[in-house]
Amino acid sequence: MSQSTTREYTEKMRGRYARMTGKTARSRLLDEYVVVTGFERKYAIKVLGGSRRVSGTNRRRGAPKRYDGEVVGRLRELWLVMEQPCGKRMKDMLPLWLGHCADKPGLKKRLLSMGAATIDRCLAASKVAGPKKRLPPRSDAAIKALVEIRAGSWEVGEAGWTEVDTVAHCGGDMGGSFIWSLTSVEILSGWTEVRAIWNRGQHATLEGMKAIEAAQPFDLKGVDSDNGGEFLNHHLHGWLKGRGIKQTRSRPYRKNDQAHVEQKNHTHVRQLLGHDRLGHEELVDPLNELLSLWCLWKNLYSVTMEQVSKRREGSKEIRRHAKKSRTPAERLVSCGKIALERKIWLAAQRRMNNPFEMKAGIERMLAAIWELKERLDGEEDGCFPLRVPGFLRYAPSPLAPARGSTLNQAATVSA
C-alpha cells in the first residue's frame, strides 16, 4: 500500500474504531487493520485512537520552548561571571546578582523563573568535565605531642572554628622555592580566606595566619590542620596558645578529616590560579591583593550548599541539604553569634560593592599577574628586560580591601 492509500484507509478505520464500544468488535477491527497495514499492534492502537500520527512532519512536537536563545545566552554569561556554579547554587545566586544588572524586566523575570534542573540542562553544552581527584601535599609532623587529634565530625554552634591547609604552586616540581596558598575555612558559615606565602616556612605561615585572622569577621576560636611542619611548630603553636585559640590536627594520611578545606582548595585556589608554577617572590604581594578581593567576592556573592542531615541506610549514605543555598556572609549573620559591629561591616560591604565590578577587577588583576609572571620568567631565561615597577603602578579595583586594615577599622568606617 502506498502512503496516501494508508492514510485514506486509516481515516476510515478511525471512524469505525471510534463508533465501536465492544471489546470483541474493536479487537476484530484491529486484527483487520494490522493485517492490511502491517503495523505493530500496540502502534496500531495508538494510530486508531488518534494519539499517534501515521506520517511525520517537520513541526516540532510538544510544548513550545519557554526559554529562547536570548535567555540561554544571558544565563551562560552570568554563569561564567559567577565562576560556573551548579544549577542549585546558581538559582539561589540569581536574585542576588540580577539586582545589579541593567537587563530588561522581562528577561530578569524569565531568568528568575528557571528551575535548578532547567539551568543545568540549558548549560549542559557549555560545561567541561574537569579532574575528579587531586592528591593533597603531605609533610612530616613536628610537635604532635602538644597538639591533640580531632577525628570526629564537626558539631559547632558558633562561628570561629576553622580548618586550614596549604596548596603548592609548584607546577609538578617540588624542587626549589615557590609560592604556597594558605587556605582557611570557617565550619559554620563556610567563610573562606586565602593568602599567598613564600616557601611555606614557619614564619611565613604565621604571618599568613595573622593576615587571615585580621580579615575574618569573627573571633578565631579553633584551628584544625594536617600534620605538616608549617602548622605543627612552636611559632604557630605558641601564638595560638597565647591568644586562647585551640589547635588540633587530623590523623596522618586521612585527608577526609579535613574535607571542608580540601574542597575550598579546589574552588578558591585551583580554579583561580590553576596548577602552574609560581616561582617568583615578587608575585606574593600582587597575589595577596588579588586573593583578598577574590575571597571577599566569594564570601559576599557566591552561595554554598548547606548539609542539614546525613544518615546511612545499608551501604548507602543519604545526605539532605537546605532547600535554599546562602552565601557565607548570610549564614554568618543568621547564626547570631558574631558582634554587632561585624554585622554592620558585612551589611556595608554588601551595600557598597557590586559583584560585576568586583569580578571585572579580579579579571584585570589576574591578567596583570600573569603578565608579570611571563616577564619574570623571561628575565630568568634572559629573553627580555624586567619591568617590575610598571606592575607596581597597576591600580587594582577600588573595591579591593586595603592590605593591613583591620576588621574593626573597616566596621568603624562603614558605621
Question: Keywords, please?
Answer:
16 helices; elongated; 415 residues; two-stranded antiparallel ribbon; alpha/beta
Mean of pLDDT: 84
| Strand percent estimate | 5-15%
Radius of gyration: 30 Å
The number of strands is 8
- Oligomeric nature of the chains: single chain
Helicity level, as a percent range?
40-55%
Principal-axes shape call: elongated
Low-pLDDT stretches = 137-142, 385-415
Strand order of the largest sheet: 1-6-5-2-3-4
Helix-strand makeup class: alpha/beta
Terminal Cα separation, in Å? 85 Å
Characterize the biggest β-sheet. 6 strands, mixed
The total count of helices amounts to 16
Please provide the ordered H/E string of secondary-structure elements: HHHHHHHEEEEHEHEHHEEHHHHH
Domain Integrase catalytic: 147-336
Protein name: Transposase family protein
Pfam families: rve
Describe what this molecule looks like in 3D.
This protein is of the alpha/beta class. It is 48% helix and 11% strand. The strands form 2 sheets. Strands 1-6-5-2-3-4 form a 6-stranded mixed β-sheet, sandwiched between helices. A two-stranded antiparallel sheet has the order 7-8. Strand 3 (179-186) and strand 4 form a beta hairpin. It is elongated, with a radius of gyration of 30 Å.
Characterize this entry briefly:
Residues 147-336 form the Integrase catalytic domain. This protein has helices at 3-19, 23-37, 41-49, 69-81, 87-98, 105-112, 116-123, 202-215, 234-242, 259-273, 284-301, 328-334, 340-352, 355-381, 388-392, 407-414, and strands at 148-149, 161-168, 179-186, 192-198, 222-225, 246-249, 307-313, 316-321. The protein is of the alpha/beta class.
